[in-house]
Design goal:
Helices cover about 55% and strands about 5% of the residues. It is mostly helical. The strands form three sheets. The protein has a two-stranded antiparallel sheet with strand order 1-2.
């Protein structure tokens, strides 16, 4: 029900590219929510303890890319013995996410969707048109990563990492993961509203208005911001359940390279 309502709301003001991306994020969230109903349950013979949650994977190297594509440099498997990041470390995470090969692949995919739906008619079609779509899509990723993972977190003293919960029911983990878009950890160890995520994506959407020849009004900026938040929420849910997905798909350790 909530997925249908969200899609109808976005369709009222999103451009065609934003509709496709938002729909994809909504489908991913709904698919992962179904997975969440079964995930997070203790396996037979395994004690149900918080200590056996995300922290049990702390000794296992994190996959750098989910499905070999989605960058995963800012996921942390545990909040125990929390240590804040320095400004240098925050910018390192932003660089890793921005210039990873997976980000290039995602930008290429977004560019394909944009050209297919003719989201920005001024770009045109053909190789030149695709190059424009790719350049702007990649700029969106880079600006968004630096705004939400480095610049705002450094200024506001917030932690850009996603801390996997790893314990509790599937639904509680699903709600926790999606909620991290609006609620995050501060460098002081406390929690608070995720200004870095919201303001960072809003700033990125505003900056993007300068290099998109079409779709430059407030309605389009709002659509872009909503799409970015939706995609980030879906990404968080994917990161939360990745250990179970990885085991279920019998992925090999090569995915960690």
């Amino acid at each position: 029900m909530w997925v249908s309502c969200a899609i109808q709301t976005f369709n009222c003001f999103c451009d065609r590219r934003a509709r496709v991306v938002t729909l994809s994020a909504a489908l991913l969230l709904s698919s992962l929510s179904l997975f969440a109903q079964q995930a997070g349950q203790p396996q037979p013979g395994t004690p149900a303890s918080k200590d056996n949650g995300a922290c049990e994977t702390a000794s296992t190297p994190e996959a750098k890319r989910l499905f070999g594509i989605v960058p995963n440099f800012r996921t942390s498997p545990c909040l125990q013995k929390y240590k804040p990041l320095s400004t240098r470390e925050k910018f390192k995470i932003a660089r890793q996410d921005s210039f990873d090969r997976g980000t290039v692949v995602l930008a290429a995919a977004f560019a394909g969707v944009g050209q297919l739906t003719n989201a920005n008619p001024t770009f045109g079609q053909g190789v030149a048109g695709y190059a424009s779509y790719f350049g702007t899509a990649y700029a969106d990723f880079v600006i968004g990563d630096f705004m939400t993972e480095a610049i705002y977190p450094s200024l506001l003293h917030q932690d850009p990492r996603y801390f996997r919960r790893g314990h509790g029911s599937g639904w509680s983990r699903f709600g926790y993961a999606a909620g991290q878009i609006f609620w995050t950890h501060n460098d002081s160890g406390t929690s608070g509203f995720n200004f870095s995520e919201v303001l960072g994506n809003a700033s990125g959407a505003a900056i993007s208005m300068s290099y998109y020849p079409d779709n430059r009004d407030a309605k389009d900026m709002g659509a872009k911001l909503g799409t970015q938040l939706g995609v980030d929420a879906a990404s968080n849910v994917l990161k939360e359940f990745w250990p179970e997905i990885e085991r279920g798909l019998h992925l090999t350790p090569k995915q960690h390279n």
